[in-house]
């Protein structure tokens, strides 16, 4: 009887540990590393741009209108700073700030995008740019933006993205307010 009690307790402990491990996998997808570090850096570096007037004063201006996905989600309106499109990456200086338009005309900062011209980057590097362990995606030309091939990384620092903070399309962002 005592053996059966110990076995029951052991099985209960294993079940609890398995449940805990599965919960951890849901909150921290494999291969994502410490997501919060880059998100925190971006939030600290861009908090002043919650006011779009401060973004425009700093050299950011709207480009492409509100970008929405063909089947789900959106990105929003990209405010790009052309002086930062210089082939370098710095977690505190995103090339684009992303705003979601509201029906009353307000813009809410939801994230940023780091953008690097692929030809410029590949002149001195043999692999894509990386920020805090996050590898940039390559977008070939021709593309929907009609610009040369580039590397990009979205960081949803101000709006939760159910698919993760570095996924391009965000189901919690909409262009409906535009």
Helical proportion, percent range: 25-40%
**Can you tell me the number of structural domains?**
2
Output mean pLDDT: 84
Please tell me what the overall shape is: globular
- The N- to C-terminal Cα distance equals 70 Å
Rg (CA only): 21 Å
Order of SSEs: HHHEEEEHEEEE
> What are the segments in which pLDDT stays under 50 over at least 5 consecutive residues?
4-33
Biggest sheet, in brief?
A: 6 strands, antiparallel
Strand content: 25-35%
Structural class: alpha+beta
In total, how many beta strands? Answer: 8
In the sheet with the most strands, the strands line up as: 1-2-3-4-8-7
Number of helices: 4
Description:
By secondary structure, the chain is of the alpha+beta class. The protein starts with a helix and ends in a 23-residue tail after the last strand. The protein is globular, with a radius of gyration of 21 Å. A six-stranded antiparallel beta sheet has the order 1-2-3-4-8-7. The chain has a two-stranded antiparallel ribbon with strand order 5-6. It has helices spanning 2-27, 35-46, 52-57, 118-122; strands at residues 61-68, 74-80, 96-101, 107-117, 130-131, 134-135, 137-139, 150-155. The chain has two domains: 1-30; 34-155, no CATH class. The longest helix is centred in the first third of the chain and has 26 residues, at 2-27. It is built from four helices and eight strands; from the N terminus they run αααββββαββββ. Helix content is 28%, strand content 25%.
SSE diagram, text form:
Blueprint: H1 2-27, H2 35-46, H3 52-57, E1 61-68, E2 74-80, E3 96-101, E4 107-117, H4 118-122, E5 130-131, E6 134-135, E7 137-139, E8 150-155
Antiparallel strand pairs: 1-2, 2-3, 3-4, 4-8, 5-6, 7-8
């Amino acid at each position: 009887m005592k053996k059966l009690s110990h076995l029951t307790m052991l099985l209960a402990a294993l079940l609890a540990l398995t449940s805990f491990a599965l919960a951890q996998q849901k909150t921290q997808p494999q291969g994502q590393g410490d997501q919060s570090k880059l998100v925190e850096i971006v939030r600290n570096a861009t908090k002043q741009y919650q006011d779009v007037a401060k973004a425009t004063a700093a050299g950011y201006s709207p480009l492409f209108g509100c970008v929405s996905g063909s089947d789900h989600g959106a990105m929003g309106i990209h405010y790009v700073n052309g002086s930062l499109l210089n082939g370098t990456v710095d977690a505190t200086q995103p090339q684009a700030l992303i705003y979601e338009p509201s029906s009353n005309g307000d813009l809410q900062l939801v994230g940023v995008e780091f953008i690097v011209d692929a030809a410029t980057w590949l002149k001195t590097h043999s692999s894509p740019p990386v920020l805090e362990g996050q590898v940039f995606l390559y977008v070939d030309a021709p593309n929907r933006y009609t610009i040369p091939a580039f590397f990009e990384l979205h960081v949803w620092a101000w709006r939760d993205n159910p698919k993760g903070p570095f996924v391009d399309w965000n189901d919690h962002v909409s262009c409906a307010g535009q």
